[in-house]
Design a protein that fits this description.
Glutaredoxin, single chain, two-stranded antiparallel ribbon
Amino acid sequence: MRSFIQYLLPSCVVIILGGGALLAATDGFRAFTEESARRLHVAENQPIMPLLELEDMKGDKLMLGQEPYSAGKITLVEFIYTSCPIICQAAGSDYARLRDRLTQAGLSGQARLISVSFDPVQDTPRQMREYAENHGATGDIWTIARIFPPDLDLMKRSFGLRVIPDDMGGYQHNAAIHLLDKSGRLSNIFNIEAVDEVFQAVQRML
């Protein structure tokens, strides 16, 4: 019996310590992935995003962030690179659906959609215009833009954006819709296909 207890106790200690580590690592078992933890942090803290200068598909400057640069509008942000063969193309289709929902509801003057490229070297204004034309982003409510290289790391840190080269000339990255209120707070993060959920969240903010 004693030998059994001697064998059992270390195992129990490992289980307890392992459980404690898992508890800490998953924020009380609430977040089992890095993306879940990112979304949980945003929902609970609603951090204010820094002011970021972008270049849009027409070559014009565009400010992303706090009032008055938000133009008094709710801002929806997704992150892309225009040569993405699958995810970003599907995301563009979902964004087009969201644009249509907002326009049909008469909310196009109170919200704006921005697809921001995290690959500013490859995504020139010409590349962005081609992407825009393929998805019907005219710049009225939905704009394609790129971050300037010196601010790329700041943007990734602020939004919790992960961008990992895939060894095939592309990237793996967070595919999501980021909801910023009029004051520039990141209020929520949604799955890219959750068009109805995002639309309802915008309505509640207005």
